[in-house]
């Protein structure tokens, strides 16, 4: 539950490639191999693509010269399809009747890295076709039958929209309000910070959580569109503890634990800005849990999406 700041780029390169690469020279050989495979693929299929200094190829399928140039730290909404060069589908999100998938164009913004790198050569509204070597994709990582080690990729991606943080905040607010309405919740109270909280079970005793209090609790936390929590410490297990006001805590923990009592049960719906913030996005979503369990991803929460947090207070000191 603590914030983790690490270089995902370095972590993933070292961890994924180590599955099949044992030295710098072997890494260079692997990169040279992948680049040859991609060049042969492009020539064989008469594809006219530009090679970048970062080591991937691209061509513009749809241009938009009047669109805003994408720059570092832009929040992007995209539609995409990811396949291997052999045609195996890894992930697709092309239906523009659905909301786009979101990520931040930053060092920690997106896996596969090759897609993230390509963001900086596009404008809002443009569509690119990318040809990405495995070391800029999933490296030596494998997942069931979906992803095989050393897979070179063909990616079609539309950079549909650049969002401001204010627009993200509004989008998340709408998602939260829809969630509350569809589930007919009537007792959530919106706080001045922008999260929604309700008491499921009243607590006991005189002492309440306040700044500096050491609070122990059991909890679960999930994306609000997913039934199963991605983090869970249920009643009967060892409890989790925080000291209210500690700067290492996510904002929602410090805010939601103020005023609680022992045995109280609360539910909190919170926007991402009060949770884990602009975490690394992962395409496809299906591999997120596996990457986290292998230590290849610092946070399980998806970026720019609301969360549902449930807690039962065990003790306050």
Automatic annotation (TrEMBL):
It catalyses: [protein]-peptidylproline (omega=180) = [protein]-peptidylproline (omega=0). PROSITE patterns: FKBP_PPIASE, PROKAR_LIPOPROTEIN. Keywords: Isomerase, Rotamase, Signal. One of its GO terms (molecular function) is peptidyl-prolyl cis-trans isomerase activity. Pfam families: FKBP_C. Residues 1-19 form the signal peptide. Its EC number is 5.2.1.8. InterPro entries: PPIase_dom_sf, PPIase_FKBP_dom. Residues 73-163 form the PPIase FKBP-type domain. It comes from the Bacteria. Belongs to the FKBP-type PPIase family. This is Peptidyl-prolyl cis-trans isomerase. It comes from Mongoliitalea lutea.
């Amino acid at each position: 539950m603590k914030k983790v700041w690490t270089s995902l780029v370095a972590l993933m390169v070292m961890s994924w490639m180590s599955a099949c690469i044992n030295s710098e020279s072997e890494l260079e050989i692997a990169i040279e191999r992948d680049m040859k495979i991609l060049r042969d693929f492009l020539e064989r299929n008469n594809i006219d693509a530009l090679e970048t200094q970062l080591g991937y190829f691209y061509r513009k399928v749809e241009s938009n010269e009047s669109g805003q140039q994408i720059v570092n730290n832009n929040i992007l909404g995209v539609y995409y399809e990811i396949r291997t060069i052999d045609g195996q589908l890894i992930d697709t999100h092309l239906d523009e009747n659905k909301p786009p998938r979101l990520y931040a164009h930053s060092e920690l913004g997106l896996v596969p890295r090759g897609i993230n790198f390509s963001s900086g050569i596009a404008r809002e509204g443009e569509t690119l076709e990318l040809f990405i070597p495995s070391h800029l994709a999933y490296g030596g990582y494998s997942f069931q039958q979906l992803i095989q080690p050393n897979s070179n990729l063909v990616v079609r991606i539309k950079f549909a929209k650049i969002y401001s943080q204010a627009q993200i905040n509004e989008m998340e607010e709408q998602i939260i309000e829809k969630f509350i309405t569809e589930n007919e919740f009537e007792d959530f109270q919106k706080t001045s910070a922008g999260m929604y909280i309700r008491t499921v079970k009243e607590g006991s005793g005189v002492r309440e959580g306040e700044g500096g209090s050491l609070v122990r609790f059991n909890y679960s936390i999930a994306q609000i569109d997913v039934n199963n929590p991605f983090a869970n410490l249920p009643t009967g297990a060892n409890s989790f503890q925080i000291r209210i006001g500690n700067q290492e805590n996510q904002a929602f923990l410090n805010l939601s634990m103020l005023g609680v009592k022992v045995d109280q049960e609360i539910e909190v719906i919170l926007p991402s800005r009060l949770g884990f913030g602009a975490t690394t996005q992962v395409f496809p979503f299906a591999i997120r849990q596996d990457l986290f369990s292998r230590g290849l991803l610092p946070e399980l929460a998806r970026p720019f999406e609301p969360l549902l947090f449930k807690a039962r207070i065990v003790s306050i000191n």
